[in-house]
Here is the input.
Amino acid sequence: MHPGYLMTPGPTPIPPEVEAAMARPIVYHRGPEFQAVLERVLANLARVARTSWPVALFTASGTGAMESAVANLVAPGTPALVVSAGNFGERFAQLVDRYGGRLEHLRYEWGATPDPDEIGERARACGARVVFCTHSETSTGVVADVRAIAERVRGAGALLVVDAISSLGAVPLEQEAWGIDVVVSGSQKALMTPPGLALAAVSPAARAAAREVPTPRFYFDWERILTGQEALRTAFTPAVSLIFGLDAALRLLLADGLEAAWERSARLGRACRAGVKAMGLELFSPDEDRSAVVTAVRVPDGVDGAAVVREARRRGVTLAGGQGRLKGQIVRIGHIGFIGIDDVAAALTALEAAFAAAGADVETGLAADRARAVYADASLQAAAPSPGR
Ligand SMILES: *Cc1c(COP(=O)(O)O)cnc(C)c1O
Here is the structure.
């Protein structure tokens, strides 16, 4: 039986090589076999984040890595600026609030693209020690210009923490060259591994700052984790099988070079947007190459968004609805990780049928072909390189 199409922005489908690697017998995490794998995984994660800085690996979901950044950098009263334009940006605000930071919240409309100049000004005005922002806001489909944001935040003298949970490996991000102090991510999005691993790549400045931050922390203490990893000794028992899987996934991801993965994501996003437009539906996420993680489609007035998601699922395609205040208003198609143009075409075909069944006025029969044509169009790729490079 065909397993159907998992087209949510996480978890994402797992390549067979990754499944096979996870089926290996468990080994002792203090033994040489595991240490060799751990060494390679840490080196490859740094390659994917484009950094020479150390990467702390946690057995946790992505939010654990977000919490580690707050726990290690925000003490009660620490001035911290959170930039939010959707559900995941709000999460950073909640975390900073829970840890007692002096929260300055720069809140955009959900679906808006944050303005780097405004972020720099606000960071300066509130004397932020740390700025938190989201690279790919998975709840809206917007991908922020973190390169420009990093430049402004550096000018304001603050550390920058970027949630790249859904973008790392899919959208261009150069941690060290762009000067992003902390990049956090998770295993179950573009990294093609099941949920359960999270990471934080930490600059020397952020690590030094963390040593001076007197918050109570244990499991998520960067210094404990990084010191252990330097000797290839994990501080705690790691999820051994997931790390075997991540090792296989990273090798696949890097086999053709990271640029090839970024380019593929951009092409899939472009193809998906073209398919949606061919149906006569309106995009909620921006129609730009950078938004290559998830395509959000506006649900027309009078149409039940939840019914569209249910009907697509009945047709074998799992999509995501809107979160929080966007519930019922958008449908999201994820196209990161182990996804190809055939998956996107199948999702579009199910989506147009589901919209039609829900009473939306959609053009049927065109979307999949249109998506394939745009994906294959080499001239489009030459004309529209991925941004940020
Ligand atoms: C998925 C996601 C998260 C949350 O990750 P969990 O693994 O569910 O904890 C946070 N931020 C972004 C941008 C995400 O896409």
Residues 383-389 have pLDDT under 50 and may be disordered. The two ends are 42 Å apart (CA to CA). Residues 354 and 363 are 12 Å apart (CA to CA).
